[in-house]
Automatic annotation (TrEMBL):
Source species: Monascus purpureus
Higher taxonomy: Eukaryota, Fungi, Dikarya, Ascomycota, Pezizomycotina
Protein name: Lactam utilization protein lamB
Transmembrane segments: none
Gene3D superfamilies to which the protein is assigned, alphabetical: Glycoside hydrolase/deacetylase
NCBIfam families for the chain: PRK05406.1-3
GO BP terms, alphabetized: carbohydrate metabolic process
Amino acid sequence: MAPIQQKALINCDMGEAYGNWVCGPDLELLPMIDIANVACGFHGGDPLIMMETVRNCKAHNVKIGAHPGLPDLQGFGRREMKLSPDELTAMTIYQVGALKAFLDREGVPLNHVKPHGVLYGMMARDYEVAKAVMLGIPEGVPVFGLAGTCMEQAANDLGIEFWAELYGDVKYDSKGMLVIDRKKKPWDLKDVERHVRQQLEEQSVTATDGSIVSLPLKNYPLSICCHSDSPGCVDIITTTRKVADDFNRKYGK
């Protein structure tokens, strides 16, 4: 397939520490990214960390979105839970509202909402879960998600602006779904480079079974997600940044 038509931006999950427990090197990563997805307290983050993360993102001119997850601190939001539609909507309103309070104090707009971890995977597979979560997103705020899945369908049905995501440090299965590990595994940087370049240049990905899977990105705004808790995340994001910048220069983005 042809290269993507959109400019390649980079987003990263941040503020996922809790109390004295440190998750990722957020301050080191901020100069390398365009957009941050800030944890809202359910899978990671706490009020002080949320406040500090918002201020740090603002200082680096990084756009800020809410990163709501399942209420599972111990499992870091990477274990499935069965919640009713009302619970899913309410927990999204609660988490996004908490982050927005800190954004309002700093005079920073809420850029988007991006669900975290297993919740993201559940939404990609289950339309009713996707719809319930998205009903908790404030009017006029975009949602980040996986194109060609129930996330895209629910966003379109609800009139929510949809941003498609690619992934720098997550593998895909043969159906184009993300393989979400509870604990991130290390990547060889040459594999990261190939993985990201293939997605940008060919709109496809090599799945875990070796098959080539097309990515139905259409013309949605797009960003590449990397994770601050991946082993070697600084090198992974440095590599992803270089591939994205080279791509943007090559095609005049």
